[in-house]
Write a structure and sequence with these properties.
The protein is α/β, with parallel strands linked by helices and 344 residues long. The protein has 2 domains: 2-172, Rossmann fold (3-Layer(aba) Sandwich); 175-343, Dehydroquinate synthase-like - alpha domain (Dehydroquinate synthase-like, alpha domain). Helices cover 44% and strands 22% of the residues. The protein is built from 13 helices and 11 strands. The strands form 3 sheets. It has a 7-stranded mixed β-sheet with strand order 1-2-9-6-5-3-4, sandwiched between helices. A two-stranded antiparallel sheet has the order 7-8. α5 (131-137) packs parallel to α8 and α10 crosses α13. The chain is globular, with a radius of gyration of 19 Å.
Length: 344
């Protein structure tokens, strides 16, 4: 097992390794006085791991209530969010109690935002079961729901009290979902780490999971500790996401987050090429991720304008200058359509 410690506005540990889910209750017990845990999951993950999580929590002395919603990004909305808040209230959770998010990024975002909002904030635990959630969304305290106008437009910064990543849960992922997470792993290599990128080039989907997840989490930990509230260096983690979120929204969330981010990264890389552009495009193809989209620049421009990183008349684009070296480039909105067109 590897442990990565985040020291932000709240200090917490990220535990990464095989066979950790049965320890959830014991680890939760270390967090202090809590009698009840609300386990939040979705309809695909809960049948696989819900009972193991509940049994672990109950064996540690917790009363457990479980809230399970339909799987998919379409559930990350205001209706489900309010229903979850009402569920917490109906089950009389107090400020000393806990929420545990068991699942991928949708579960973590929704449960985390509910925990941040209920009683003005109660503690929560992230238990990621997808690669994407393990390396990215479970770490750093961003929680959110989607609005009709765009992705993650309502949310809060709320650091978890613990992240418990059992790498065994990744074995049940369909290959397509695992590939989605690989888009975020590749992103970390492009942003910060040439050695990580080279390992991914060499090993492909056979990369060593615990080692790579730990390295990605360490990289994100360092960024979060430098810029917890996303006003500077943390913006770089948006590599591929600004246009990717536009692609995702245009597809009405039928295209997965990882595939949309991969296509967004490819568009940015082609629009502003660097010496490593061929390697970046090649690794996306190696992992079976899209490098193109059929959507027109006009459509992507419209949806990209709803991105939460927009500041007035400027959108901050993250541009690779080389593998391991990316820059934040403030781009006037009026130039964005031309930029997107150049990358299609």
């Amino acid at each position: 097992m590897n442990t990565v410690t985040v020291r932000a506005s709240k200090q917490y540990d990220i535990l990464i390794g095989s066979g950790l889910l049965p320890t959830l209750g014991a680890e939760a017990k270390k967090l202090g006085k809590a009698r009840t845990v609300c386990l939040v999951s979705e309809s695909t993950v809960y049948p696989l791991y819900g009972k193991a999580a509940e049994d672990s929590l109950k064996s540690a002395g917790f009363s457990v209530v479980s809230y399970v919603f339909p799987a998919g990004e379409s559930s990350k909305n205001g209706t489900v969010f309010l229903d979850l808040l009402n569920f917490l209230a109906e089950n009389k959770l107090t400020r000393s109690d806990l929420v545990a998010a068991l699942g991928g990024g949708v579960v973590g975002d929704l449960a985390g935002f509910a925990a941040a909002s209920y009683l003005r904030g109660i503690r929560f635990i992230q238990v990621p079961t997808t690669l994407l959630a393990a390396v990215d969304s479970s770490v750093g305290g961003k929680t959110a729901i989607d609005l009709p106008a765009g992705k993650n437009l309502a949310g809060a910064f709320c650091q978890p009290s613990l992240v418990l990543c059992d790498t065994d849960t990744l074995r049940s992922l369909p290959e397509e979902i695992f590939r989605d997470g690989c888009a975020e792993v590749i992103k970390y290599g492009v942003l910060y780490d040439r050695d990580l990128f080279a390992h991914l080039e060499e090993e492909g989907l056979a990369f060593h999971r615990e080692t790579v997840i730990t390295r990605c989490v360490e990289l994100k930990r360092d960024v979060v500790m430098e810029d917890e509230f996303d006003t500077g260096a943390r913006m770089k983690l948006n590599l591929g996401h600004t246009i990717g979120h536009g692609i995702e929204a245009k597809s009405h969330f039928q295209l997965s987050h990882g595939k949309a981010v991969a296509a967004g990264l490819a568009i940015v890389t082609r629009a502003c090429p660097c010496p490593d552009t061929p390697r970046i495009l090649a690794i996306l193809e190696k992992f079976g991720l899209p490098t193109k989209t059929d959507y027109a620049s006009d459509d992507l421009y419209t949806y990209t304008l709803s991105d939460k990183k927009r500041a007035g008349g400027t959108v901050n684009l993250i541009i690779p200058r080389a593998i391991g070296d990316c820059a934040i480039v403030p781009t006037p909105v009026e130039s964005l359509k031309t930029f997107i067109q150049a990358g299609l």
